[in-house]
Design a protein that fits this description.
The chain is an alpha/beta fold. 56% of the residues lie in helices and 10% in strands. The structure holds zinc ion. The site of zinc ion (ZN) has 5 residues, from loops.
Length: 325
């Protein structure tokens, strides 16, 4: 009996030892797992940091590149301004576009006499994504311009149409669709399109717009008889059309630089008695926005000049003259 009890005790002790070993093994395994996870995290952290840093460096490199581009462009314009200021008037080179930059000796004579020269900045085909930036620049220089708008962004840019009017600039009609094949197909097509834009602008801005610009100008490539029909109808409606005599050339190609636009404008302005400058405020014309402060400063530095919006009564510049004026 006594021997049996001892044996029982011995077995119990052995069982307890076994259980203790098993618990210890589990603890060790758990510790191993924790150490492995910690090691994995410690290894991954620098890798993640590395990737984040590489991405940031790339972003900064892009930013530096874009700032360098802007700096180079700005320096080119500044040096051009300086050159223009010191250049003799006879330095003005030949005409780039015979239909838009005819030489005007009277303009130079007027400048010499000290009379104030009217200069008109006009923006076609907007409003677009850059129109608000253009309005900001005009506001910063406290000058007014004219926007010959289309209806292309009518549903998205109501505020911009309104802002143009509220800030004292002029609105002009440039047809709703700006699609040559449609608007120049017939007089009724032209009327329907232009009336649609007039109604839209009346609704959105409360203004009855009475100035216009033909897409392509009045020298657009359509028959003379068709053009005359359209002009006659505009005259009946009391709408005056305005062309331009200076072209910024920003629609000549997709990649015209701000320096070229500035040069085109200043070259044309020097030749005209009443420069009416054609620019564009569509979504592809970022360089026009970049050139604008330099163009305005260039004009103001000429002295005896006043930047004005086209208004009722402003004497028009017309490539093809209206017969009933
Ligand atoms: Zn146009």
């Amino acid at each position: 009996m006594c021997f049996g009890r001892q044996e029982f005790l011995h077995k119990s002790i052995q069982r307890m030892k076994g259980m203790s070993n098993w618990a210890q093994r589990r603890r060790i395994q758990r510790m191993k797992r924790i150490v492995m996870i910690a090691a994995f995290v410690l290894l991954m952290l620098p890798l993640v940091f590395h990737i984040v840093l590489i991405l940031q460096v790339r972003r900064l490199e892009d930013r530096i590149k874009s700032l360098e581009d802007r700096l180079v462009s700005g320096q080119a314009l500044v040096s051009e301004t300086a050159t223009r200021e010191t250049a003799a008037p006879s330095d003005s080179s030949g005409e780039k576009d015979s239909t838009t930059t005819r030489s005007d000796p009277e303009g130079e004579a007027k400048e010499e006499k000290g009379e104030v020269r009217e200069v008109y900045l006009t923006f076609d085909d907007g409003p677009g994504i850059y129109t608000d930036q253009i309005l900001d620049i005009l506001a910063a220089y406290e000058v007014k311009a004219t926007f010959f708008v289309t209806g292309e962004n009518a549903d998205r840019m109501e505020d911009t149409y309104r802002r143009i009017v509220e800030e004292g600039h002029s609105l002009g009609l440039h047809t709703y669709s700006h699609k040559y094949q449609e608007i120049y197909r017939s007089l009724p097509d032209f009327q329907a399109d232009l009336n649609r834009l007039r109604e839209y602008l009346r609704e959105v801005t409360g203004q009855e717009v009475s100035i216009s610009r033909f897409p392509g100008g009045s020298s657009v490539d359509i028959s003379r008889s068709r053009l005359q029909e359209l002009i006659n109808w505009l005259n009946e409606e009391g709408i005056v059309y305005y062309d331009w005599n200076v072209s910024g050339g920003d629609a000549d190609a997709s990649d015209v630089s701000s320096t070229e636009i500035y040069e085109n404008c200043m070259e044309g302005i020097r030749k005209q008695e009443r420069p009416m400058i054609l620019l564009h405020d569509t979504s592809t014309k970022r360089s026009t926005v970049e050139a604008l402060p330099f163009i305005i400063e260039g004009i103001l530095e000429l002295g005896n000049t006043e930047l004005l919006p086209i208004q009722e009564g402003t004497v028009p510049i017309q490539h093809v003259t209206s017969t009933i004026n």
